[in-house]
Design brief:
With 159 residues, this protein is an alpha/beta fold. Helices cover 18% and strands 35% of the residues. The chain has helices at 5-12, 46-52, 76-84, 99-102, and strands at 16-18, 24-26, 32-40, 59-64, 72-74, 89-96, 109-114, 126-127, 131-133, 136-138, 143-147, 150-154. The longest helix is centred in the middle third of the chain and has 9 residues, at 76-84.
């Protein structure tokens, strides 16, 4: 199903929060939606790999990487893991790498940019935590709707 955030906004304005963040689109999929799974970390993608190794059908992973541009949290191998485990999409408040390859893959990723450096591996991260990204509160269990126009959050499934 194609998600059109402008239409969702028009119909459910009072129930939505806009993630007011300038994110770039990566991957061949242009829209996605699902139940939010939250992950908080900094320059360490160990928990990203662990989380995406689980079944993600109907789910969207929101990664608060602190906005760091010093390393990538997602690369083509991790993107393939997300595809294999049926994740609907990924929001990354951080960077990705291997963007040329990822852009050919059947996945939807929104991130702040790219960086060729890989992350460190300390096995540190917090799964299921409430996130605050650029002033927007994001909680596990919310529903997220995203397309080329932006990202919307709701406390219940709307479409």
């Amino acid at each position: 199903m194609d998600i059109i955030t402008a239409d969702i906004w028009d119909e459910f304005t009072d129930e939505l929060t806009l993630l007011n963040l300038d994110l770039k689109n990566y991957g061949a999929k242009t829209s996605f939606s699902g139940e939010v799974i939250t992950l908080k970390l900094f320059e360490d993608n160990s928990f990203v790999r662990k989380t995406l190794a689980q079944n993600g059908h109907g789910k969207v992973l929101v990664i608060d990487g602190g906005g760091s541009k010093r390393c990538a949290l997602i690369g083509d191998n991790i993107a393939k893991l997300a595809i294999d485990n049926e994740w609907e999409g990924l929001i990354v408040y951080g960077c990705i790498r291997d963007s040329k390859v990822i852009n050919e893959m059947p996945i939807a990723i929104k991130a702040i940019g790219t960086c060729p450096a890989k992350s460190i591996k300390r096995d540190v991260g917090l799964l299921g935590e409430e996130l605050i990204i650029e002033g927007t509160k994001i909680t596990q269990g919310q529903y997220l709707y995203a397309d080329e126009d932006g990202v919307l959050l709701a406390n219940r499934k709307l479409v």
